[in-house]
Fold this sequence. Notes:
Number of strands: 0
Distance between the termini: 28 Å
Structural class: mainly alpha
Largest sheet: none
Radius of gyration: 15 Å
Number of helices: 4
Order of helices and strands: HHHH
Shape: flat
Amino acid sequence: MTENPLQIISDIAEFAKIQEFMEDENVDRALVKLTRILSNRDIPGIQIARQIVDCQALSAYFGIQARYYMGIGKNEPDHANKKNIYMTLKEAFNDLAQALKYIERAGS
Length: 108
């Protein structure tokens, strides 16, 4: 996301479409978390470890869901799109956790 307010609004609208399509409470939670981090990048040091664990847990969940749609759920409607979104979220939240680790190390 960029710092341009119009672009941020557009990106949030796209997030809402993803939430509606996926119908998954953890996707909702992940997108809210991402939006909060993007809007306020100054995460208090005390919260960083919790954010790292949460991002890693979300990444694991998304990885499991992606695998489900690669195998067992491949006959479900929109399986390919859901698999791709889950894979993207898995990678993104793993990367976010790694970035937060850098912040945590820099603060200590």
